[in-house]
Amino acid sequence: MDRETVTKWCIDKPGAWEDYPFGPEPLVVKVASKMFALVGGGEPVHQSLKCDPETALMLRHEFEAVKPGYHLNKTHWNTVVLDGTVPEKDVRWMIDHSYALVAKSLPKRERESLTDRIPNVREE
Questions:
Q1: Residue of 52, 72, 57, 124 whose CA lies nearest to 93
Q2: What is the mean pLDDT of the chain?
Q3: The pLDDT of residue 124
C-alpha cells in the first residue's frame, strides 16, 4: 500500500480528519479530537497505529515490518513499514482496529457525533 491509499482508508472513517501538528510531516489522522494514525513521508512509508497490547505483540511476531511505535507508547502503538510484506487486508484491519479503539474511547458527546457505527474491534 502506498501513502495515498492508506491516507484515504483513514480519512474515509466517520469523523476522521487530517492534521499537521508537527509541521509538514507526519500526517496525523484524528477521529474527533484524538489521533488514531500517523503517516510518515519517505519511502517506504511508515504508518503508526494504536493497538491493544496483546494484539500489538502478536502482530510484531507475525510481521517483521510491524515494530513498536516510533516515538510513541510502545505498549499501545505499532509502526508498520509499508514495504509490501504486510498484506493489504491486514494493513486495513490494523487501521480499522486503531480507529475503533480510539473512537470508542472518545467522550460520550464526541462519540455520539459520529454519523456511522464504530467498527467492531474484534477480528472478523
A1: 124
A2: 88
A3: 32
Contact (CB, 8 A) for 66 and 90: no
Q: Which residue has 497505529 as its cell numbers? A: 49
Residues for the chain: how many in total?
124
Q: Where do the domains of the chain lie, and which CATH numbers do they carry?
A: 3-108 (3.90.1150.30)
DSSP 8-state symbol, 85: -
Q: 0.90 cut: is pTM over it? A: no
C-alpha 32/C-alpha 90 separation (Å) is 24
What is the tens place of the pLDDT at every residue in 86-95?
999 999 999 9
Residue 110 C-alpha from the chain's centroid? 19
Grid coordinates given for 67: 515494530
In this structure, the strands spanning 77-82 and 45-50 are antiparallel
Q: Is 79 helix (H, G, I), strand (E, B) or coil?
A: strand
